[in-house]
Write a structure and sequence with these properties.
Length: 355
């Protein structure tokens, strides 16, 4: 089969990362194209077996026309589109090519104008749009209500992790610092400033043998650094910026922390579970599908509980180890590379009518 994975950019983000993972996943058994509008740091992660091609975006009709030409020239049978613009453009291009389209939603959109809602509702019923995927149950319910999409086309496909391992236990005297970690974008909705406040909470409660690691970049990074200096906790926090290889950081962490106010299905949290790390996160999106509250970590509803649960884990190595092992077992059973590949492979075969 010839498959086009279509995503808005190769900048760092959950949908973008999953698109690259999916392209790489099937490049060995199919001819895979990766279409995108903007370059970004994830381009270095694209397999040489994937034909990565940038498409210039200049209005929906013009861009759809150029996409249609590429689909025809490359004889592509399946367009797997993620995020809003690629989904619309793939559906429009399919009207004139016969390609089968998969829409893949990774995030909420609460402020879609009426014309966009009507467009999605109409295009979702086009015969070329064969499947509409969501990364968790909550997101599927949200869009089913907001856009009135056809239920027979909808399904959940979890994101997956490429990581597999555990942090090696280190011994020493004095004991090594406890390492808390966050991996992801540093933007307003991720509330990374909570991690600065968490560092201050630890110090206030006489727990000072720790390091906070923030791995990621974004427009809120300088603000977070300034707050760390203002709260006089900068010596406890390391800002690592964007890192293409995050595995070494997960091997360092003892606890994964995610203060975000909005998530769908966090690949970073799945990665943490695969690396046998307990996680503390807020009860948003699909977080409670990744973290089993009180078994693999804690799902919290307010800042005070977030701070308290992090401190509880920091002080109890036994709970950390128990939760971490349970997290690894749960994430392996639900979010493994093999399980994701099997489901997606079945889906591709189904919509391509290959038996």
């Amino acid at each position: 089969m010839k498959i086009a994975i279509f995503v808005s950019s190769l900048k760092f983000g959950g949908a973008e990362k999953q698109a690259v993972l999916d392209a790489n996943l099937f490049a060995g058994e199919h001819e895979v194209f990766l279409y995108y509008f903007e370059d970004g740091p994830l381009k270095s992660a694209v397999s040489p077996q994937v034909r990565a091609e940038r498409i210039e975006k200049q209005g929906y009709l013009d861009t759809a026309s150029r996409l249609r030409k590429r689909i025809r020239a490359n004889r592509i049978g399946i367009i797997h589109a993620s995020l809003f613009a690629p989904c619309v453009l793939a559906a429009l291009a399919a009207l004139f090519t016969g390609a089968r389209v998969i829409w893949h939603f990774h995030s909420h959109e609460y402020d879609l104008p009426l014309r966009s809602k009507l467009a999605f509702n109409l295009l979702s019923r086009a015969p070329g749009v064969r499947k509409i995927l969501f990364v968790n149950q909550e997101l599927m319910a949200h869009f089913s209500s907001a856009l009135g999409l056809p239920p027979r086309k909808m399904a959940v496909l979890y994101n997956h992790s490429e990581l597999n391992g555990m942090r090696e236990m280190e011994e020493g005297n004095p004991p090594r610092p406890l390492h808390l970690g966050y991996v992801g974008r540093v933007v307003e909705l991720k509330r990374v400033h909570y991690l600065v406040e968490l560092a201050g909470f630890f110090v206030k409660n006489n727990f000072t043998n720790f390091r906070m690691h923030i791995v990621g970049d974004g427009e809120a990074l300088n603000e977070a650094k300034g707050l760390a200096r203002a709260r006089e906790v900068q010596q406890y926090i390391s800002f690592h910026g964007f890192q293409p290889d995050v595995a070494k950081y997960y091997r360092l962490f003892d606890i994964f922390v995610n203060p975000s106010s909005e998530e769908c299905l966090s690949i970073a949290m799945i990665d943490a579970g695969m690396m046998a790390l307990p996680t503390v996160a807020f009860d948003v999106g699909g977080n409670n599908e990744i973290v089993l509250n009180g078994k693999t970590g804690y799902i919290v509803n307010n800042t005070g509980d977030f701070f308290q649960k992090c401190l509880l884990l920091a002080r109890d190595e036994g709970i950390r180890r128990s939760f971490g092992l349970a997290a690894r077992q749960h994430c392996r059973s639900q979010f493994s590379r093999e399980k994701h590949a099997e489901k997606l492979r079945e889906l591709y075969m189904e919509i391509a009518d290959v038996h």
